[in-house]
TrEMBL record:
It is found in: Plastid, Chloroplast stroma. The keyword Manganese does not apply. This is Ribulose bisphosphate carboxylase/oxygenase activase AAA helical domain-containing protein. It comes from Brassica campestris. The keyword Methyltransferase does not apply. InterPro entries: RCA-like, RuBisCO_activase_AAA_helical. One of its GO terms (cellular component) is chloroplast stroma. Activation of RuBisCO (ribulose-1,5-bisphosphate carboxylase/oxygenase; EC 4.1.1.39) involves the ATP-dependent carboxylation of the epsilon-amino group of lysine leading to a carbamate structure.
Amino acid sequence: MEKFYWAPTREDRIGVCKGIFRTDKIKDEDIVTLVDQFPGQSIDFYGALRVRVYDDEVRKFVEGLGVEKISKRLVNSREGPPVFEQPEMTLEKLMEYGNMLVMEQENVCFSTESV
């Protein structure tokens, strides 16, 4: 089987990011800014940014309920599954998480180089 290697262009990244963030009310110009701020990143990077924002909502839910009560709330609960509001996604928040992810990548690269 032949492998297909895709090296997305800037325009490819912008198009894919528009799809990733289509339900989040991110302006097209903000997506362009985001892609231009992190030009060498894989497509997965932009999906990870979106997930981080949703992770915040789950973290708030757990903190509000308490770790000790989480299993009773989720397993066979009469309340049904938790419902989360769609989080507000802003360019500022995405840039903050993007910079954090880049720092994590650098830490991983640095730690594997020193082994």
